[in-house]
Structures are given as structure tokens and as C-alpha cells.
What does this fold into?
Amino acid sequence: MPVDELTFDPSDPAVTRNPHPIFARLRAEDPVHWSEPMSGWIVTGYDDIVDGLTDSDVFSAERLTNVSKHLPEAARAPAAEILRYLNSWMVFRDPPDHTRLRRHMAAVLNLPVFETLRPAVSELTTMLLDQLPDGDVIDLMPHFSILLPGMVVMQLMGVERDRLLEVKRWSDDMMLFIGSARGVPDKYERARRGAVSMATLFKDLIARRRADPGDDMLSQLIVSEVEGRQLDDDELVGCLMMVLNGGHETTANLINNSLLALAHNPDAFTYLRDHPEGMQVAVEEFLRFDSPILSIGRIVREDIEFGGKQFAPGERVFFMLLSANRDEEVFDNPHRLDVTRDPNPHMAFGKGPHFCLGTPLARIEGQIVLSEIVRRYSRIELAEPVEDIAWINSLVTRGPTRIPLRLVK
It folds into this structure.
């Protein structure tokens, strides 16, 4: 197939489910590729992605700044309500705003804080696995992998656990605005309702914490100061939305993608049962093998030649982390799951100044959850062909919409 017929089309369910073959072709034949379906550049090579994500002077994270002008007229009013909060997400800001917001967040989201959550993660993992319904086949998505990371984040934020599924629906709807591929009906109005509902909840929570501070993340964030400046309420709401979405969806996909990998690789499952001390290294391989984040989007700031192509200001670029983690120039046998792979310089959580602050927590949850599942069961099996399972319709996150398994004791 000639290069001009190579296309990454996220509206194709088969491509969404398994983009690795097309990414391998693109890395070999057209690593910096213009995609008509995405109206933007697709970058698939590891080194090019490192270069792009570490150069915020050329590649701007502020990809929502001019989004309204490209929307249908009817979508602009809903978009304005959503952007009120999304514009406070540090993932959509460049320095100096990004630097300021990140300093606030890093003061309350860091390794020592995350380490204190280990007992809670272990307790929740045991509780949820004990409560799994009996039956030959169990969809772990609603019974476990959606619940666990959400409960952990809710505890971190000081939100009641019984609000979890309600808030998760709001978050999913809001993310339609920035993450979904085309073809989702009513996505702007759904996203607006989700954003407004989440903002209402969080504003009430902020007011309560101002009146009666606790030891949770929000109470600390409210009083945090950077160069004498505190976060305003819209910034606080935006930070909470970002933490909820990032800490919930990404970890759920890490769990689901790892379980799928283990179901397809029973030798790896057996190895980890026999070598539980190897789980820390194994989690890094699960993150590389099928990353929970598909891509990171940027906007070109200036005319530049990149990867042999000419980029123009305002063009969109999608840096495909999933592809970087299978780059043959960096990883030996990249399409093989090797739970002993070390070193493992994957880019599952990005690169550069926007590297994910929640990375340590995702690692902790992955290590505890997968260790307990491997300890409890002799094997896990996918209960239906993977081709029959739909994948999340998103340009940001990556994972199945359900995960029907047989858990064999």
C-alpha cells in the first residue's frame, strides 16, 4: 500500500481496537503523517515524539484557545460554559500559567502523599474482589476497574464515595468535548451538562472546606500559595475536574489493558504467580505494551520543519504515545509482552513539562491490584473474542468498554 493510502482513522472500530499495525506502517513509511480524517498531523516515532513534547515553544498545549471558532453556531454557547473550567486545567496551559498551576498541584499531589494511600488501595482492592458476583463470566468494568480508582480519587479529594458513579457519568460526558472521535450525538450539550453538574458539586465542596478545613487534598489546595497568589474558585474547580478525570480513567484503563494482556499471555500470568516480587517491573511493561493514553494533542505555534514535513501555525499535531511505546528503534521485540523487560523507557504518561503528576499513584494501584488478582486466581481468560469488544471512542484515553473474563481459582 503506498504512503498516501496509509490512514489512521479513529472512527473505524477495528483501528480503534488495534491501531498497532497501522502505527507500525506509519513509523516505517511516513512517521510524520497528515491525516485527513483527523485534520491534523500524526507523529508516531519515539524520538520525534520526545522532541515535540519537550518543546513547548513550538508545540502549544493551549489547544482549546480557538476551538470555539471551529464549532457549529449551536455548539458555541455550550462550549463557553465548558471552557470556563477546562481553561484552568494545567494540561491545556503553557508557561507561565502551566508552571504556576503545576506548582500548586505538586504541593498536594506527590509521592509521599500517594504512598499514604497504599493501605486504602489494598483495602478497597480486597473488598471489591470479595464482592464480585458469582458466575462463569464477569464483566470487571462495572464491578471493579471503574470503581477502584474512582474510590481512591474520591478519598484523595474528600468526596463521598456514594457519589462516584454519578460523578463518573458527568466526567465521561464532559470529556466528549475534548476526547471523543467524531460521530457522538449531542456531544456538546452532554458535555455542557456534565461540566455544569461537576462544577456545582465541587463549588459546594469548596465552600464547605473553606468553612471547615480537613486534611484532604482540596483543603490543602485552597490554602496553597505560589508567589503570594492562591487559586480562584474556577481554578480550584478545574483542578478537581482534572484530577478526577486523570486519576480515574487512566488507572481504570491501565487495569483493563493489563488484564487483557495477561489473558492473552498466560505464561506471563504464571510467571507473576511464581515471582510476585516481579510485579513492579511488570507494571511498567503493561504500561508500555498497551498504554492507557493514546495520544497527546498540541497546536503548532510557528512555521517549522519537523520530521521532514512543513508545519504551519495553528495546525494540530497528535503525538501517539501508544505508537512510541512499540517503536522498534527503542524496544526489542516491541510487540511481545515481556514482564521482565528492564530498562523500559516507555512514554505511557507523556514526556517533558506536562509529564503526568499522578504517575506514582497509577503505578501503586496497578501493582496492588494486579498482584492481588494474580495471587487469587490460577488464570484469567477472555470470555469472548476480542474483536467483539468495542473500544473507547477517544483520541486521548485507550481501553475496552467492557472486559468479560473468566476468573479461574
